[in-house]
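Predict the holo structure. Ligand: zinc ion.
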Amino acid sequence: MPQAHLYRSEAVILKQMSLGEADRILTLFTPLYGKVRAVAKGVRKPTSRMSGSVEPLTRANMLLSKGKDLDVVSQAEPIDVYMAVRGDLEKTSTSFYMAELIDAFTIEQSENRSLYRHLVNSLETLCDLKNDGLGNIREFILLRASYESGLLNMTGYRPQIHRCIECGLVPQGSVSFSASGGGLICQRCRNKQTVTRPLSVGALKMLNLLEEGGFAFLKKQPFQEDISLEVESLLRQYIWYLLERNLKSTSFMDSVRRGVSMDRFEYTGQ
Ligand SMILES: [Zn+2]
């Protein structure tokens, strides 16, 4: 009998679903093979030695074998279980969002090392954020925005924020953003796009800075609360347009936000 084709890979488990009595189907994200769907056999049995290593949002070293439809997880050794994310709702909902975005924007068997590194770095940064329940919602918003911006860039969906998407000129004066057009609209071209939203000078500056640097760079910038919220809302609308659906984790994040800090920030989730 020929030996099953085995391969090793590091992976972050994006999600799981039950299969039969004792198995799970895992959706993995790997540096070399992109998204991979694989069966973890017997992991729902109490005696399984692998169960702790295949929970969602665990980073693990895996030994997999090629299957006809789905690959099979033969071994899994955890590298990081992101303990600081678990038990903190703001962090948990953000980590689910990060995983769901990757799942939505990637296809199976498509190498994307930089996106894998971006996910791992962002999860590590999320673990390190201080969450006192009120004070640093700003940092969560900036981390999510830098994660979204990097992901859009690495998957080929970076919005055009330097020139008008209709006339190609650098806009002068007030500008708008078109989610369906994927970028800026100057004042003269505004009528050519049906759905646009006004874009403040501060939000445009923040979008530019998002392209220039990651979270560590961004959090040193003196953004006002309303600018961060405007960019958060714009990126969400753009992503919604690209995917043509809402992500489950965005409602989770919104309900956590309402529970945690509605009084202080009057956030409406728009
Ligand atoms: Zn124009």
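Residues 164, 166-167, 169, 186, 188-189 surround zinc ion (CB under 6 Å). Helices lie at 89-105, 113-128, 137-154, 201-212, 215-218, 225-243, 248-265.
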